[in-house]
Design brief:
disordered C terminus; 7 helices; extended; alpha+beta; 6-stranded antiparallel beta sheet
Length: 222
């Protein structure tokens, strides 16, 4: 036992560039801000050749029109079928006819067998919008970071109040970019919505726990 040495290398948290998430805005370690949009998908294969060409040209025009970089990210996860099966099982208890109960049980078994045989994936599409016009820093959150938010630790917000004016100024600039991107996406049929704080934390939580099909995100303390 005396030969066992304690690990003294960098902690996992030191490899994560996210410092904190406030009001849906991701604050990175370098002080820059990020907004995350959840975007809908277009099944372009179902469109006609003319529609496909129009969508591609509109997307090209959108990219050429913005004067700042964006990142498009796709998060794929195995679809969690358990809530759907539980709903069906509750319906069995409400059925009065034995034939309907039997058919529902057979359907549940079929769905369970099918999902065990085939990996049904759900995909979510995100657009990340940056703003790096000045370093927003918060000294009181250096020892907290994103991990504490993932675990539901309480944040008194005192550090942010000290830099509230600067943060609000930079957030205003970022929100202008968000509006530009949302408007550009809507031109070719892509709906988008900015994530709030809890939704943004859930995105990062799922990134750090890719093997889990479903996990309730800790509630943020007010």
């Amino acid at each position: 036992m005396s030969d066992i040495k304690k690990y003294t290398g960098p902690r996992t948290q030191s490899f994560i560039p996210v410092k904190e998430i406030r009001d849906g805005i991701v604050v990175l370690e370098d002080g820059s801000l990020r907004a995350i949009l959840l975007a809908s998908a277009i099944n372009i294969a179902l469109k006609s050749a003319e529609e496909q060409q129009a969508i591609v040209l509109q997307f090209q025009d959108f990219l050429n029109s913005i004067e700042f970089p964006i990142e498009i990210s796709v998060q794929s996860r195995r679809y969690d079928i358990k809530p759907y099966l539980l709903t069906l099982e509750r319906r069995i208890e409400q059925q009065d006819e034995e034939l309907l109960r039997l058919q529902t049980r057979e359907y549940i078994e079929f769905v369970r067998w099918f999902t065990d045989s085939v990996n049904i994936m759900s995909k979510k599409f995100y657009v990340i919008i940056p703003y790096t016009g000045g370093a927003f820093t918060n000294q009181n959150t250096k020892k907290k970071g994103l991990f504490n938010q993932l675990l539901g630790s309480k944040n008194n917000g005192s550090g942010f109040r000290e830099n509230s004016s600067k943060f609000e100024e930079q957030r205003s600039q970022l929100e202008q970019r968000v509006a530009i991107v949302k408007g550009g996406l809507s031109r070719f049929g892509v709906r988008s919505e900015q994530l709030n704080t809890e939704q943004a934390i859930e995105v990062f939580y799922n990134m750090f726990n890719p093997g889990e099909n479903h996990r309730n995100i800790p509630q943020l303390e007010q």
